[in-house]
Design brief:
The protein contains 2 helices and 14 strands; from the N terminus they run E-H-E-E-E-E-E-E-E-E-E-E-E-E-H-E. The protein is mainly β. It has a single domain, classed as Sandwich (Immunoglobulin-like). The radius of gyration is 19 Å and the shape is elongated.
Protein backbone atom coordinates (compact mmCIF):
# COMPACT_ATOMS: atom_id res chain seq x y z
CA UNK A 1 0.00 0.00 0.00
CA UNK A 2 1.28 3.43 -0.79
CA UNK A 3 0.25 6.32 1.39
CA UNK A 4 0.34 9.88 0.19
CA UNK A 5 1.25 12.72 2.51
CA UNK A 6 -1.55 14.37 4.48
CA UNK A 7 -2.50 17.94 3.60
CA UNK A 8 -1.04 19.24 6.86
CA UNK A 9 2.57 18.96 7.91
CA UNK A 10 3.78 16.52 10.52
CA UNK A 11 4.26 18.30 13.91
CA UNK A 12 8.03 17.77 13.75
CA UNK A 13 8.20 19.62 10.41
CA UNK A 14 5.76 22.47 11.07
CA UNK A 15 7.10 25.81 9.87
CA UNK A 16 9.79 24.30 7.67
CA UNK A 17 8.68 24.29 4.04
CA UNK A 18 11.60 22.22 2.77
CA UNK A 19 11.02 19.59 5.45
CA UNK A 20 7.32 19.43 4.48
CA UNK A 21 8.31 18.83 0.86
CA UNK A 22 10.66 16.01 1.91
CA UNK A 23 7.88 14.45 3.99
CA UNK A 24 5.52 14.57 1.03
CA UNK A 25 8.12 12.98 -1.22
CA UNK A 26 8.88 10.21 1.29
CA UNK A 27 5.26 9.54 2.21
CA UNK A 28 4.55 8.40 -1.33
CA UNK A 29 6.75 5.38 -0.58
CA UNK A 30 4.75 4.30 2.45
CA UNK A 31 3.89 1.10 2.53
CA UNK A 32 3.44 -1.90 0.35
CA UNK A 33 1.44 -4.00 2.77
CA UNK A 34 0.96 -7.70 2.36
CA UNK A 35 -0.06 -10.09 5.09
CA UNK A 36 1.14 -13.58 4.31
CA UNK A 37 -1.07 -16.26 5.78
CA UNK A 38 -0.14 -19.47 7.50
CA UNK A 39 -2.91 -21.91 8.29
CA UNK A 40 -3.10 -24.96 10.49
CA UNK A 41 -5.87 -27.48 11.04
CA UNK A 42 -6.68 -30.62 12.97
CA UNK A 43 -4.93 -32.61 10.24
CA UNK A 44 -4.97 -35.95 12.06
CA UNK A 45 -8.75 -36.18 12.00
CA UNK A 46 -9.58 -33.64 9.26
CA UNK A 47 -12.31 -32.31 11.53
CA UNK A 48 -11.71 -28.68 10.60
CA UNK A 49 -10.03 -27.00 7.64
CA UNK A 50 -9.49 -23.45 6.41
CA UNK A 51 -8.81 -22.75 2.73
CA UNK A 52 -9.11 -20.07 0.05
CA UNK A 53 -7.00 -17.54 1.95
CA UNK A 54 -4.98 -15.00 0.03
CA UNK A 55 -2.55 -12.22 0.88
CA UNK A 56 -4.09 -8.92 1.95
CA UNK A 57 -2.93 -5.82 0.07
CA UNK A 58 -4.17 -2.28 0.51
CA UNK A 59 -2.78 -0.59 -2.59
CA UNK A 60 -2.34 3.19 -2.57
CA UNK A 61 -3.94 5.03 0.33
CA UNK A 62 -4.29 8.76 -0.08
CA UNK A 63 -6.79 9.53 2.69
CA UNK A 64 -4.98 9.00 5.99
CA UNK A 65 -7.93 10.41 7.93
CA UNK A 66 -10.08 7.35 7.15
CA UNK A 67 -9.72 3.73 8.20
CA UNK A 68 -8.62 1.30 5.47
CA UNK A 69 -10.22 -2.15 5.44
CA UNK A 70 -9.84 -5.27 3.34
CA UNK A 71 -12.05 -8.30 3.69
CA UNK A 72 -12.01 -11.68 2.05
CA UNK A 73 -14.41 -14.57 2.05
CA UNK A 74 -12.88 -17.98 2.65
CA UNK A 75 -13.82 -21.58 3.22
CA UNK A 76 -13.96 -22.78 6.82
CA UNK A 77 -15.13 -26.37 7.10
CA UNK A 78 -15.93 -28.17 10.33
CA UNK A 79 -16.97 -31.82 10.51
CA UNK A 80 -18.31 -32.04 14.05
CA UNK A 81 -21.79 -32.78 15.40
CA UNK A 82 -22.47 -29.04 15.61
CA UNK A 83 -20.22 -27.84 12.73
CA UNK A 84 -18.48 -25.84 15.46
CA UNK A 85 -15.00 -24.41 15.42
CA UNK A 86 -12.75 -21.81 17.03
CA UNK A 87 -10.20 -19.52 15.40
CA UNK A 88 -7.04 -18.01 16.90
CA UNK A 89 -5.09 -15.23 15.17
CA UNK A 90 -1.45 -14.49 15.86
CA UNK A 91 0.43 -11.59 14.32
CA UNK A 92 4.11 -11.23 13.59
CA UNK A 93 4.68 -8.49 16.18
CA UNK A 94 5.99 -8.86 19.73
CA UNK A 95 3.93 -11.37 21.70
CA UNK A 96 1.94 -12.18 18.57
CA UNK A 97 0.59 -8.63 18.22
CA UNK A 98 -0.99 -7.50 14.96
CA UNK A 99 1.82 -5.35 13.63
CA UNK A 100 3.37 -4.56 10.25
CA UNK A 101 6.99 -3.47 10.12
CA UNK A 102 9.25 -1.46 7.85
CA UNK A 103 12.79 -1.41 9.18
CA UNK A 104 12.47 -0.07 12.72
CA UNK A 105 9.01 1.42 12.10
CA UNK A 106 5.77 -0.39 12.86
CA UNK A 107 2.12 -0.05 11.93
CA UNK A 108 -0.61 -1.66 14.05
CA UNK A 109 -3.58 -3.37 12.39
CA UNK A 110 -6.76 -5.02 13.61
CA UNK A 111 -8.29 -8.36 12.69
CA UNK A 112 -11.98 -9.25 12.69
CA UNK A 113 -13.74 -12.55 11.95
CA UNK A 114 -17.25 -13.41 10.80
CA UNK A 115 -18.66 -16.93 10.52
CA UNK A 116 -20.58 -15.77 7.41
CA UNK A 117 -19.07 -14.97 4.03
CA UNK A 118 -19.25 -11.60 2.29
CA UNK A 119 -18.94 -9.52 5.49
CA UNK A 120 -17.09 -6.22 5.90
CA UNK A 121 -17.11 -6.32 9.69
CA UNK A 122 -17.02 -9.01 12.33
CA UNK A 123 -15.95 -9.89 15.84
CA UNK A 124 -12.70 -8.23 16.93
CA UNK A 125 -9.92 -10.80 17.45
CA UNK A 126 -7.25 -10.44 20.11
CA UNK A 127 -3.79 -11.90 19.47
CA UNK A 128 -3.42 -15.50 20.67
CA UNK A 129 -6.97 -15.63 22.10
CA UNK A 130 -9.36 -18.19 20.56
CA UNK A 131 -12.71 -16.94 19.29
CA UNK A 132 -14.96 -19.85 20.27
CA UNK A 133 -18.54 -20.81 19.46
CA UNK A 134 -18.28 -20.35 15.69
CA UNK A 135 -20.39 -22.46 13.33
CA UNK A 136 -19.59 -23.32 9.71
CA UNK A 137 -22.11 -23.51 6.87
CA UNK A 138 -19.61 -25.35 4.63
CA UNK A 139 -20.60 -28.84 3.51
CA UNK A 140 -17.29 -29.83 1.90
CA UNK A 141 -13.65 -29.52 3.04
CA UNK A 142 -12.72 -27.04 0.29
CA UNK A 143 -16.24 -25.70 -0.36
CA UNK A 144 -16.48 -27.44 -3.73
CA UNK A 145 -20.08 -28.48 -2.95
CA UNK A 146 -22.58 -26.22 -1.19
CA UNK A 147 -21.55 -22.64 -0.44
CA UNK A 148 -18.32 -21.53 -2.15
CA UNK A 149 -17.22 -19.66 0.99
CA UNK A 150 -18.38 -19.78 4.59
CA UNK A 151 -16.50 -17.14 6.63
CA UNK A 152 -14.93 -13.69 6.35
CA UNK A 153 -11.56 -12.34 7.45
CA UNK A 154 -11.39 -8.56 7.84
CA UNK A 155 -8.12 -6.62 8.26
CA UNK A 156 -8.23 -2.95 9.30
CA UNK A 157 -5.68 -0.16 9.32
CA UNK A 158 -7.04 2.57 11.59
CA UNK A 159 -6.61 6.20 10.61
CA UNK A 160 -4.80 6.93 13.89
CA UNK A 161 -2.09 4.43 12.94
CA UNK A 162 -1.97 5.52 9.30
CA UNK A 163 -1.64 9.22 10.04
CA UNK A 164 1.29 8.68 12.39
CA UNK A 165 3.13 6.11 10.25
CA UNK A 166 6.51 6.92 8.73
CA UNK A 167 7.42 6.30 5.10
CA UNK A 168 8.50 2.78 4.21
CA UNK A 169 7.46 -0.60 2.88
CA UNK A 170 5.42 -2.42 5.53
CA UNK A 171 4.76 -6.15 5.68
CA UNK A 172 3.81 -8.75 8.24
CA UNK A 173 2.45 -12.21 8.86
CA UNK A 174 -0.87 -13.29 10.26
CA UNK A 175 -1.26 -16.90 11.38
CA UNK A 176 -4.74 -18.39 11.73
CA UNK A 177 -5.17 -21.55 13.78
CA UNK A 178 -8.56 -23.26 13.63
CA UNK A 179 -9.81 -26.01 15.91
CA UNK A 180 -12.87 -28.22 16.05
CA UNK A 181 -15.49 -27.75 18.79
Amino acid sequence: MAIKAPATAHPRTAGRASARRRLAARAGLLALCALGFTTDADAASNKVRISSLSDVTFGTLSDLSSDAAQSQSLCLYSDTATNGYNVTATGGGPGGSFQLTSGLSSLAYEVQWSNASGRNSGVQLSPNVPLTGQTSAASHQVCSNGPATSASLIVLLRSASLSSATAGTYSGTLTLLVGAE
